[in-house]
Amino acid sequence: MKAQTAQRRMIPMLDLRLEYERMKEDVDRAITRCLDHQRWIFGPEVRELEEKAGAYLGAAHCVGTSSGTEALVLALRALAIKSGREYFDREDMIITTPFTFTATGDAILRSGATPVFIDIDPATYNLDAAVLKRYLESGAGRPVGIVPVHLYGCPCDMKEIMELARRFKLFVVEDVAQAFGGVFGGRRLGSIGDAGAFSFFPSKNLGGFGDGGMLATGDAGLDSIVRMLIKHGGRDKYNVEHVGYNARLDTLQAAVVLSKLGHIEELNAGRRAVAGIYSEALSGMQEIVLPAAPSEGLHVYNQYTIRVRGVLPDGRRTGLRNGARDDLQDHLRQRGVDTMVYYPVPLHKMKVFHGRCAGPYSLGESEQAVKEVLSLPIEPFMPEEDVRHVAGLVREFFAS
Ligand SMILES: Cc1ncc(COP(=O)(O)O)c(C=O)c1O
Q1: Domain CATH number, residue 246
Q2: pTM of the model
Q3: pLDDT of residue 295
């Protein structure tokens, strides 16, 4: 009877109460402060967060935004404006990965440019710098920029990407939605390219209590354009210069994120510890591939994503229906464990990008990854016994 209860333990993908309980005092105090001053738009917490995040990231300027998606759009629009036009043209090509959240590609469309999808490195799931190099050297199209995505919290090869960007005179906007605090080459992600776009969506490793985001940049010109764009495109309400947005980070979200920012090292260390337990408990299984350590820098494990091999190295199939990944997901679900597939559809297969992206280029690695990846529950304060329980169920599936 006891064993049955243990088997039925429910483990959600994410239980945000664990994090809140640890930080309750700081978070509640920050919210109470807002209730006291009642400055909901551009309250003092917004500036304080921008300054503290900038200092932490090593970015001269940070601007709070209403979401990570808007931070990407704002970065791209500001780059277009800096180059002398309101929007990019359709002939302007911005390179990114198709193995990401829709927002990355959608932001490129909204900036007026055309996305070019380049395949991923199957080990890190990030833009493959070697494929990027081949594309750029082919001289195809008119590339103007690159949007690398540090997927799952794993840093992209920023050395290679920045070298190519310099050589081909391209801007770089890092999509850091999943990687606050990650590092490459001794620098925080989001502070390496021309700009970095962060998300404070609640499930992110630095999350608020609703939507929110931030743009980081070392470029004072971009900073001042973005500060106009977030409030309708003008220096003030009645001197509007650009087609802008209402895309401010609100005071309450800034206060929550600010109170958590003080714990970011602990939060990321907690995630890395959980990832370490998973990797140890799942080691040696030929049916699955564990997350690769980045070639350089620090992974922050916004997700812990394994890859289920449909076919073993010796040619045997591991699963029965719809590939082994879906069967494993069902097996876990039936035993009370939630998992997620990030992402089941590559961007180039989505209707919104049909006829709106450049190519076709070979995107076989991305198309394979969508069938095989599975993200397991992870959060900084996940009890070790839960992590081991999930890993045990994964082992059980392949042993049966
Ligand atoms: C890789 C990536 N880019 C962009 C975004 C967009 O962020 P937001 O949800 O804050 O708009 C997300 C998160 O949802 C993401 O995971």
Answers
A1: 3.40.640.10
A2: 0.96
A3: 79
